[in-house]
Input
Amino acid sequence: MTTPPRSVTIAVDAMSGDLGPEAVIPAVTGILRDRPGLEILLCGRPEIIEPLLPQTEALRARIHIEAAQDVVTMDDSPSRVLRAKKDSSMRRAILAVAEGRAAACLSSGNTGALMALAYMILKTLPGIDRPAICTPIPARGRPTLMLDLGANLEASDEHLVQFALMGTTLARAVYGIEEPTVGLLNVGSEETKGHETLRRAHRRLADGFPGYHGYVEGHDIHAGVVNVIVTDGFTGNVALKTAEGFALYLSGILREEFAASWLSRLEAVVASSVLKRVRRRLDPGRYNGASFLGLRGIVVKSHGGSNAYAVRQALERTLQEVAYDVPGHLAARLAPPPHEVTAV
Output
């Protein structure tokens, strides 16, 4: 993990998510202890935030509060948030990025509302039609980046090509993968499989996109076959939630089986170190923090049910994106060659 800039401010939506400030503030306190150059701008209701802040004067001096009275709930539609919640903690956090007062924004709130606000306030980079949500998925070897995970329920072949560009940029910049490989999620690996949009995207990617592997299937997601998996937001979101659900199911099955009898409980004691490692590898909080790629600023989405540990992981991921200037790397890849600029 690369060290973030010595002095950086992250804007955090303190109110959103299932646990709100009770998860956010312990995570903020913990990361401030480990990152001397970090400052946090907490956006939300001061009367709720203030009593939860650390009493240590040195830490408290690096936490700033920006008052915001509205809270975006999980039931709010993006249109309602845009229209009626002008003073939300979510909006304030994104505005801090747009105004240059913060290097990035983190929120555990409503994904649709966060994307709508980020798209409206920050806009997309030139050459990007739509932002996409990307997160690491546990896989053999190292996590696989997957996008889109819900920002665009439908995607054209052009969007899928742009997603490949965004995903490989993140893989290079943050994860240090010099030549990331890319797969296009499909129902089969044969050339004739999938709908026409997928086949068009496949032809375009196969025609010279660096590292393009071809089609991948559902069973390849956790196999580490490629570094980046590209799909539309509908399919990606279903795949992600299916994986999360299966991880919870598997954890539950292990608990039930090891509690079934006294012999099973004894076996659990013997295997406790292995079980702890398995639980750690399956813990969704370990991979928390989805990147909103393609925007002119950094926005990271923490899972709505995140506890303090998961929020801390998302904060670490946010700092990584700041350290590597992901929007800057993507803008550089989108820029036309110098001779083309001169010709214009």
